[in-house]
Specification:
Elements lengths: L1 H31 L10 H14 L27 H8 L7 E5 L5 E3 L1 H6 L3 E9 L3 E11 H8 L7 E9 L6 E7 H4 L4 E7 L2 E2 L9 E4 L11 E7 L25
Parallel strand pairs: 1-10
Antiparallel strand pairs: 1-2, 3-4, 4-7, 5-6, 5-10, 7-8, 7-9
The chain binds the ligand Nc1nc2c(c(=O)[nH]1)N[C@H]1C(S)=C(S)[C@@H](COP(=O)(O)O)O[C@H]1N2 and molybdenum atom.
Amino acid sequence: MTRKLLTRRSFLHVGTTAAIAGVGYAGYRAMSAPGFLGVLESAEYATLNAQRALLSGQPLAREFSPSDMSPVFKANGTTMPGGVVYQEFLANNFSSWRLRVDGLVANPMSLSMAELKRAPQRTQITRHDCVEGWSAIGKWTGVPLGHILEQAQLAPNARYVVFHCLDDVYEDSGRYYESVDLFDAFHPQTILAHSMNDQALPVAHGAPLRLRVERQLGYKHAKYLTRIEVVDSYKNVAQGNGGFWEDRGYEWYAGI
Ligand SMILES: Nc1nc2c(c(=O)[nH]1)N[C@H]1C(S)=C(S)[C@@H](COP(=O)(O)O)O[C@H]1N2
Ligand SMILES: [Mo]
């Protein structure tokens, strides 16, 4: 455990952040170059592919079989966001809901649920570990975040992805939010999930859309998504520590 943690840490903080920061840059350059097809053979594209290979070599979180699924999956934190905005979405079955994707991207987007469902999908059965001392195994279906980020086209200086949510955990506490580095953002098991256990995501578990970032602890799996913001630093978001619970003392990356 300790060894794994140290290995991941040193990779994450020394090698990866620097190396992966280049993915946005290379991808951006390749895709925004005049005549995109013309750059397929170019050095930029080769660099992009090399970095993709590095990314796809990342270890996967363990996946389970249907018989392992927990009969009861606890809901934690917010289970029903207050406020008129969410209540209106709920009343119209999320038909007016959109996911905004903006910040350091060449192509900001506002995506409906139908558009998200038309994108490539991934299903995975994984174990969720909450720091409060419980775990549960569930099945999640959604769009790989990497696919959405590729469409948005990260700017050269993109380094982190911030997830803005629709709920206040406590009255007047400010909205829940989280963030990940590009290493986790492009990880193949990092998905924007609209379904849980083959059903539409229940309100208690983050309807209509939540993050699954499978190698991380429960609090990073932001529910009730409304906006994905690409930034070069998370210091200017809320209290500057990378997430709602990080602003209250949790580590940005606790490592499991
Ligand atoms: N928007 C939002 N996301 C959130 C939370 C929350 O309160 N609000 N709680 C976090 C915590 S601590 C955990 S353990 C998981 C719980 O997910 P679940 O309700 O599907 O079990 O959501 C995480 N994401
Ligand atoms: Mo949690």
